[in-house]
Amino acid sequence: VAPVAIGLLRNPGSYEVLSGLARNDENGQRTYGKPVEESMRAFAAYGLGLVGHFSPDLELRRKVVADLVTLLEDEEAASNDLRVAAMVSMGLVPLEVVEDAVVCYCGTCEVADPHASLQAQVTYLLRYFTADRDFDPIVRAHTATTLGRLIEARPKGMTLRLKEVVAEFLIEALQKNRRQPVEVKQSVVMALGLVGDADQDAIDQWIRWSLTRSASRGGPIEKRFALISLAQVGSRGGTGED
Residue 72, exposed/middle/buried by CB under 10 A (0-12, 13-18, 19+)? Predict the structure, then answer.
């Protein structure tokens, strides 16, 4: 767990070491003394997320997100540990909103530079979440809560539209009840608790309706998570009327 401790120290100078370990590149292998084991790479990914989370340096945060995307797309990873670590860490590093950024929120478009802006970061994750035949359900489940954390962070300049897009994809996944793995549904319910609030915006009313539905019709764990999320949503005042 040493890489996690290094991340908690909040030292931007730790980035190169943690990046090398996570990516198992020449620098990382030199630091580790041999090819980096996958468990150690996963811990390094968590450390990277912490370094990015605590850093006000926008360029460093972009580099961290770019590294995490590389880990998510590492086809040689033997297990989901590395991808889960990268996905969880992604939620710790919301990027800045770039005004007039050209993005598509269809959920299927590939993104050339997911590290360019919050909008690109969210677009990349939406495709990861919706591609249920391409990615493991466990990683997709963590994608839902990562999307929720990025919206919950509300970086300066974030629009209501971005929140609406994420919420719509999450709610739609719940409505496709029979097709979604149970882990994904449970995670979606938790993610909606991070996204919603208690005002009268149409999207927030829809989130609360969806959570109420899960609390009455979902599986045993989904019901419990839905009640927790309803409490989160109800305690968050929001920015709309009433």
Answer: buried
Q: Encode pLDDT of 183-204 as tens digits.
A: 999 999 999 999 999 999 999 9
236 burial via Cβ count (<10 Å: 0-12, 13-18, 19+)? middle
* Angle, in degrees to the nearest 10, between helices 58-72 and 38-54: 150
Residue with tokens 């509300």: 154
Torsion angle of alpha carbons 143, 149, 155, 159, nearest 10°? 70
Close Cβ partners of 30 (under 8 Å, ≥ 6 residues apart): 20
Residues 87, 137: contact at Cβ < 8 Å? no
Cα angle: 11, vertex 12, 15; to 5 degrees = 110
Task: Give me Rg for the CA atoms of the chain.
Answer: 18
Q: What is the pLDDT of residues 132-182, one digit of tens each?
A: 667 788 999 999 999 999 999 999 999 999 999 999 999 999 887 667 889
Q: Is the dihedral of CA 226, 169, 159, 204 positive or negative?
A: negative
Assigned token pair, 20:
């090398």
